[in-house]
Amino acid sequence: MPVLRSIGTLATCRNEGAQSDIHPIQNAALVWEGGTLLWVGPEKALPAEYAAWESWDAEGALVVPGLIDCHTHLAFGGWRAEEFAQRIQGSSYLDIARKGGGIMSTVAQTRTMSEDALLDRARSFLQRMMALGVTTVECKSGYGLDVETELRLLRVYHRLGQEGAARIIPTFLGAHVVPPEFRDRREEYIKLLIGELIPLIAARGLARFCDAFVEETAFTVPEARRILSAGKAVGLGAKLHADQLSSCGGAELAAELGAVSADHLECVSQAGIAAMTKSGSVAVSLPLASLYLNHAPLPARRLIEAGVPVAVATDFNPGSAPSYHLPLALSLACTMQRMTPAEALKGATIIAARALAIDGITGSLEAGKSADFAVIDSDSVNEWCYHFTPNACWRVVVRGREVEPLGQGSRR
After folding, report:
1. 410 pLDDT band (50/70/90 cuts)?
2. Residue 283: helix, strand or coil by DSSP?
3. 373-376 and 62-65 as β-strands: parallel, antiparallel, unpaired?
4. pLDDT tens profile 202-258
5. pTM for this model (two decimals)
6. Are residues 189 and 270 in the same domain?
């Protein structure tokens, strides 16, 4: 039953207000019991009933809600460093994909790995993400693209979730691309997704969401509509990879289906923004992917000014975003997308929680919510995003339990 005292700034990041409203409390304290927050407020107002409880000293640091990475591809085989060099030399993402690289290169490597090997690798990534202050991770399949491997990837996420170190939100992305064995039979692959995999995954409780990649080298809007509608029919929420490399109506489809989020949106149209404004779907910015692909990023200012909430995530994957460093993504959201540090932080906390439909559980520091928070070696959110360091996080708590920092965080 601890009390965290001497918090310099506590960013509560409540749901209400504008994207820039992080509802800070100066000279704050927070109290939790088990995995639940009991009290949050100025330390001078701490109720007497908590005075004798065990105390932790934040030493004047910044405390934020546990970060939420709401778009990752956590389990995969191999890396694609050779494509990094190819893109630098002028090859585009689509050029590489057409030659058999890209996603299909990772699929080939992932299919050869056992479930335990994939689990060990994903766990290693997850531990390092948590040391950065990340307490919830959305994890997509999509590097199997056959029944056996897609189920294997989702079982890996299920097992990670059962270990309880972090909150895992699994997403089925069988509609990533059409695998080579179905290249000339794409309708058969779509029927496999709709008729076999989606019902099986839902029946086994292996995913909360169904995702689809709408793009020239992946799936059309009508195909994605069928796939995501099939997922919704069996209780899986809809998410989309939308308008990343071209404006192809992905944002409009997300709004039409009531998707919790449309992710990427680097090429989103004005019509797509207007549709998302009405639907309430969250736009998920992935600035690390924009950096690695040397693409113009999601137009955050246009979206925010239109009333679309913007989350920030890493898109961690072996090709277009080979980094799980969410604090770096926050800094890039500021420099590349002109989001303020407060807007970026809210995008990686309560708005990211909305992109996963868990904002009633986590994403902000309020009594009754999960005790998920990070202690940051900084005086303010502005300083944290401005003065980038390998890791400014020196204490992480998930569901009320402290996470080992792996020696990466600094101390004040």
Report:
1. very low
2. strand
3. antiparallel
4. 999 999 999 999 998 899 999 999 999 999 999 999 999 999 989 999 999 999 999
5. 0.97
6. yes
Evaluate whether 139 touches 173 at the Cβ level (below 8 Å): no
Q: Which amino acid is at 321?
A: A
β-strand pairing of 373-376 with 393-398:
antiparallel
- 50: DSSP letter: G
Residue 228 lies in a domain: yes
Cβ contact 405:131 at 8 Å: yes
Q: Please report, for residues 21, 88, 299, 305, the alpha-carbon distance to residue 291 in angstroms, rounded to integers and kept in the order given.
A: 27, 12, 14, 23
Residues 119 and 167 in one domain: yes
**Is the predicted pLDDT of residue 98 greater than 80, yes or no?**
no
**Whole-number Å distance between alpha carbons of 370 and 30:** 12
pLDDT-based confidence at 405, cuts 50/70/90? low
**Distance from C-alpha of 190 to C-alpha of 224, rounded to nearest angstrom:** 9
Is there a single domain that holds both residue 38 and residue 120? no
The closest alpha carbon to 167, from 399, 349, 400, 1, belongs to: 399
List Cα–Cα distances, 226 to 238, 272, 408, in angstroms.
11, 19, 45
| Cα 38 off chain centre by | 27
